[in-house]
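Hey, quick one: can you model this chain's 3D structure?
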Amino acid sequence: MFQILVNHNDDIRELVEKGYAVAFDSNCMVIRDIPYLDKQKQLQIGTIVTKLKFIDKERIEQDNHQVYFAGSSPCDIQGAQIPNLADNPHNLRLSDASKDVIVQRSFSNKPKKTGRFKDFFEKIESYVSIISGPAMELFSVDPYTFRTVERSEDESVFNFQDTLTSRAEIGDLSAKFKDDVIAIIGVGGTGAYVLDFMVNTPVREIRVFDLDSFHVHNSFRSPGKTLSGELGKKKVSVYKSRYDNFRQGLSFEPTFIDESSVDELTGVSFAFVCVDKGSSRKGIFNLLLRLGIPFIDVGMGLKRKEGLLSGTIRTTSYSVDDGQRISDLGLAMVTDNADDIYKTNIQIGELNALNASLAVMKFKQIRGFYYEEKSNCHSVFRVEDNSMTTLSDSDED
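Sure thing. Here's the predicted structure for all 397 residues.
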């Protein structure tokens, strides 16, 4: 990352050649060794952090005139806080590779004439003159240390820079997924949307399993555009072509998962079960419970009521410790009955997407990404009144 950005961005190269201790982390540029004065007029060393806006994989531009600062409020040569920085407390978490950088402040200062910095070199030079000027005068120091900061952060699984995470300042939360190996069993309506959401989640690996072919009806409840050449191909082949260019760590297998599929799920840390046949679900449940893999199962039951569609969508979570108890509650159909509501086979794209959203949100709650006031293992959404009923993890049958 460092060399690529230096090679393809003249302003970054200028900063490095001048001697700034430039590094990159969480889609931010990090410049260490910035001298400044505290209110006792003592020399301190801080770090400037500024967000990157990627034009493509190699070129960047500065997003705005703001920067972040790891350090206390910089002061002038009399020990008074520098007035023209719009100094405000701020917290921005970087990765473990930058544990030494604890952002405490944000600064906002723009050029008076243009109101916008031309590039990163002009931006950093301007802030350094304001922040470091008094320290440079009093202590004859400068920020030009030519220091190289080694990076230990793993390479991203994405083929594009995850600027969404950096813009939202949630890198610490996204990092909670970095070791996950996800299995998605079934990519029909709901499973296809689960895949779409999980592809954008920085999990280490996603394994997709589905033996069926992609037909016209699938295209009406599938994310993304459909090409005529995709019809009749295996679903896994269709989705592989859609997502392979976006990220790494994807595998697509035209395989039917049952109780014997131990090898396919070896190493999986979490699974999504998105099948509509009870007997298939039973075999998958038995396998996952036996292997100690936590999972979420989804289901949809729609029928006509007074001529209109009505019904429910279900999201049920099975943990390692409590999975068997939840399974014993019989919340998901594991038989193929003639009266099975799933046999109506009515599925609508927006409800598939909602079912997938609820499942992925629950997974992220389990991983500590979303706040959960009261943990639940089971939720049912009713179409007719948009209501949701839940079953707490601690509730008994």
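One thing worth noting: The chain has two domains: 2-159, 179-392.
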